[in-house]
Amino acid sequence: MDQSLTFDLDLIHRYDQAGPRYTSYPTALELHENFGEADYLRHIEQSNRLGGPLSLYFHIPFCDTVCYYCACNKIVTKNRAHAEPYLNDLCREIEMQGALFDRGRVVDQLHWGGGTPTFLSESQMRRLMVSTRRHFNLREDDEGQYSIEVDPRETDDRTIAVLRELGFNRISLGLQDFEPDVQKAVNRIQTEQETFAVLEAARNEGFRSTSIDLIYGLPLQTVESFSRTLEKILQVSPERFSVFNYAHLPQRFKTQRQIDDADIPVPEVKLAILQMVIQRLTEAGYVYIGMDHFAKPNDELAVAQREGKLYRNFQGYSTHSECDLIGLGITSIGRVGDAYIQNVKNLDTYRQTIEQGRLPVFKGFELSWDDKLRRAVISGLICHFELKFRELEREFSIDFKTYFEQELIELQKMAEDGLLTIDTDQILVRPAGRLLIRNICMVFDRYLTEKQQFSKVI
Questions:
Q1: Which range, of 2-16, 104-118, 348-362, averages the lowest pLDDT?
Q2: Which residues are documented as binding site?
Q3: Element (H, E) at 126
Q4: Residue 286: which of 224, 228, 212 has the closest Cα?
Q5: pLDDT digits (tens, 9 = 90+) for 417-438
Q6: Where do the domains of the chain lie?
Q7: Which residues take part in binding S-adenosyl-L-methionine 1 (predicted)?
Q8: Is the pLDDT of residue 209 over 70?
Q9: What is the mean predicted confidence (pLDDT) over 180-186?
Q10: Are 174 and 151 in contact (CB under 8 A)?
């Protein structure tokens, strides 16, 4: 497939609005508290009847220091002892969840996120993985996609060696920006030396994929300053980049109130930074996967996209659409069968629920037939930038143009603007429309309302 990308400033200005990131459809905003443990158990039973591999997500919420831009679910503390009771509860949840899923179901994907997973000590990380292996069927051939997010400030050669020994083979390094004034403004002081030392250690230990996370739109950033950061990283050539747009929502996220609004780059500067990033990464041989992600052409995400096998879930892009996703730990979200499930968000509530021997289900959502159809539509667009009508017509027994008559009418304006083409049997997103893929997907979202708060699409 054509994986090229066009930066059209006029189109971006016209279509730059707020919208979902579509790590799921319906989005997590639709999860509700009327969905409880009994509903989850019912979907697990259905899932076990179908079988298939599993994906595990573990939320490690602790951070040593607060990054002012962060909108993640986190607990900031310098007291490492706080992790121990949480780990006790998490291991108990692993035991309870593991007992519900057929032992023969292999875990093809595993991810530790946060927070800062490397906040855990070496002995705690070992204990967590031992508990996971005891209650779930982890792969022993190193062919699974076992990934972890690390903070280079919390990681050294020894930590990397332990992570590799535990079975991790993919790693994502948080960075955001190397400029000292930007780092000071967001309270994240991180040197080039410690960042690249972790990257080199990961490669020496045999990690198969390395990714660097950057954020554009942070205070005091300019095109020139961000270009310097990008150039330094390109010299070490990670397999992937995640270049996120900073969403400044201080009314929702208290830590963002520490950022001076006057230091936030104006929209024109943010767009200029994005344009520079696209140009430099394209020149360096990276391809645009979608939704802020770039990868080398031989990376598994890029290959999966070309082969029509890419998928998107609550952790982002994935190559394993067949996996049911089990979320473990506070705030984590899973997808089992035709349902989304989120755990409780509060540490005390989590502990009390676990101590009572109950699953910490906070809320969830059961997909209707229409939800599953629209999910397939949005997933096809956001992963592959194309949608073949006949495939959906066979799977859902519909006439696509009849069922989505109104949506196709709405898409005509986008077609006229050059974002996409609508043929007799498909929708094809053009290079100029790929940065605006969220806008295209929003046309098919029947839950979308003006009252919902989302980040800008660019």
A1: 2-16
A2: 57, 63, 67, 69-71, 114-116, 149, 176, 188, 213, 247, 333
A3: helix 122-135
A4: 212
A5: 999 999 999 999 999 999 999 9
A6: 1-22+368-448, 23-325
A7: 57, 114, 149, 333
A8: yes
A9: 97
A10: yes
Q: Strands of 238-338 (E only): list them.
A: 240-245, 287-290, 293-295, 311-313, 316-318, 324-328, 333-336
Q: How far apart are CA 191 and CA 194, in angstroms?
A: 6
pLDDT of residue 453: 67
Give the chain's length: 458
Beta carbons of 97 and 37 less than 8 angstroms apart: no
Please tell me what DSSP assigns to residue 251: T
Question: ∠ CA(31), CA(309), CA(274), 5° rounding?
Answer: 75
Burial of 313 (0-12, 13-18, 19+ CB in 10 A): buried
Domain 23-325 bears CATH identifier 3.20.20.70: yes
Q: Which residue has the higher pLDDT, 321 or 223?
A: 223
Q: What is the mean pLDDT of residues 4-21?
A: 89
Average the pLDDT over each of 167-176, 206-215, 367-376, 442-451 and give the range with the smallest value: 442-451
The yes-or-no verdict on residue 450 having pLDDT over 80 is: no
* Residue 418 token pair: 């050059």
User: What CA–CA distance (Å, rounded) separates 89 from 83?
Assistant: 10
Token pair listed for 404: 């989505």
Of the listed ranges 157-161, 288-292, 320-324, the least confidently predicted one is 320-324
- C-alpha span between 195 and 88 (Å, rounded): 31
Determine whether 414 is exposed, middle or buried from the number of CB atoms within 10 Å of its CB (0-12, 13-18, 19+): buried
> Residue 99: is it exposed, middle or buried by C-beta count within 10 angstroms (0-12/13-18/19+)?
exposed
Question: Which residue ranges make up the annotated binding site for [4Fe-4S] cluster?
Answer: 63, 67, 70
pLDDT for the residue numbered 451? 61
Residue 353 has pLDDT above 90, yes or no: yes
Tell me how far apart the alpha carbons of residues 273 and 279 are, in angstroms, rounded to a whole number: 10
Token pair belonging to 63 = 């951070």
Q: Which of 15-24, 228-237, 315-324 has the highest mean pLDDT?
A: 228-237
Q: Contact, 296 vs 209, CB < 8 A?
A: no
Q: What is the pLDDT of residue 291?
A: 85
Task: Please state, in angstroms and rounded to a whole number, the distance separating the CA atoms of residues 3 and 129.
Answer: 37
- Residues of each annotated binding site for S-adenosyl-L-methionine: 57, 69-71, 114-116, 149, 176, 188, 213, 247, 333
Report the pLDDT value the prediction gives residue 457, as an integer from 0 to 100. Answer: 72
Residue bearing tokens 């790590």: 23
DSSP calls for 431-448: GGGGGGHHHHHHTT-TT-
Distance CA 274, CA 239 (A): 19
* Domain boundaries 1-22+368-448, CATH class: mainly alpha
